[in-house]
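Bench notes, afternoon.
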Amino acid sequence: MNIKVSRRIVKGFVLLFSLYAILNFAPNKHFMLILLGSILIISLLLNTVFCGWICPIGTLFDLIREAGKKIGNIPVIQPTNKVFKKWIKQNKKRLLKIDHYLRYFRYVLFLWILQSIFLGLASIKEEGEHGILSVLYLLIATIIAGFFIERSWCKYICPVGAFLGIVSKISISRISRNEEACIKCNICTKVCPMNIDVANRITVKDIDCQSGLKCVDACPVDNALSFKTEIPLFSLKKQGKQNK
């Protein structure tokens, strides 16, 4: 069973289980603490695997993007879709800059949630109807963007992803590229849903990496890309032996 099939099975199971849980269970503080603790442990051990393999919202936005691709292939819409794709190619540099700055918004949102929890300033409850409508408009805009942009929720909105991206900096697992085996085909960069230039990384340390392993699965060369887990103490010992 390859990575793509395994990922789809895991994501599908978690999505169905999440829907069942929402309909049948009322979450409480103890449950939320256990859930957050589990996500944190997973992230420390396996980087952002939660984002790439488990998160049900990420899976929903994957389905939205797939729906967008299918809508774009409808004969009546194809001419407009071709014009749209041409416009994207012509404005690629400008759009990449906009994308880069928009990604900071999820960190702003994460900090705003933190202050509303601990300080209670400018919370949605205080804003009343206007606060709820603002969140609703933001969600609708993100869903619409999801038809055109892969994982728009993950890139621009998700506060959990923002936090886990920071945690990933001290994770013991990362995607690594073997320079000797790499044939510089750039397929890994092209398939990355988070637009990371994997082909020019020895170790993928980008805060946006979701460890979905699409790059590893798409790589045509065995062992050119791999998901490695290294315990710092043991890796230091290994480096010491190599230097001797």
